[in-house]
Amino acid sequence: MKYLAIVGTNSDVSTNRMLLQYMQKYFANEAEIEVYEIKELPAFMEPEDFEIPEKVAELSDKILKADGVIIATPEYDHAIPAVLKSALEWISYTSQALTDKPVLIVGASHGTLGSSRAQAHLRQILDSPELAARIMPSSEFLLGKSQGAFDSSGNLIYLDKVSELEEIFREFVLFTDITTKLLKDKVLNKKVTKYTWQE
C-alpha cells in the first residue's frame, strides 16, 4: 500500500508531524507512507484567472496516486486548523481527488482527550458531497499528553498507544484493500474538466 500522510498544521513544531513520522518509520515494512506538508499552500480563494496554484495541483496529484490518505490533525478551539480546512476546500473546489479515497484520521494534542473534537469535525467535512471520502468507520487514534509521548529519537513511548496504533493501522490497510476492490468497477462522476467557479 502507498499512503499520503498529511500534516494538518502549519506549525513548525508539531506532535502531529512527529506522529506521522513515527508511523512512516514504524510501518515501513507494511506500507509506503509519504509525509506531506500543507503549510506552503495558499489560503483558499476562487482564483480570478481560473489557474490552480502549483502546490494545490501537486497535492491533488499525490492524493490521486495514493491508495489511501492519513490525516493527522491537532485541535484548535474544538475544530481543525484553518490551514487544513483551506487545503480541503482547494481539493473540494478543484480536483475532488478525495472522492472515494480511503482516509484514516489520527491526531495528537497536549491535553488528555487527544484531538477528539477536531477529529469529529474533520469527519463531517470529509463526508461532504464535494469531498466524499471513504472514512474508516469506528476508528479514532487519540494521542493525548503528546508533548511527552516521544523520546529523543522520535519513538512513541506510550506502549498502550503503540499497540492501539498497530491495530488501527492494520485495520486501515484491510479497509483500503476492501474499498479499492469494491470501487474497482465504479464509474466516478468527478468534475475533472470544469471547476466550481467556471460553472
Automatic annotation (TrEMBL):
Coiled coil: none annotated. One of its GO terms (molecular function) is FMN binding. Gene3D superfamilies: 3.40.50.360. InterPro entries: Flavoprotein-like_sf, FMN_Rdtase-like_dom, NAD(P)H-dep_reductase. One of its GO terms (cellular component) is cytosol. Residues 1-146 form the NADPH-dependent FMN reductase-like domain. This is FMN reductase. It comes from Anaerocolumna chitinilytica.
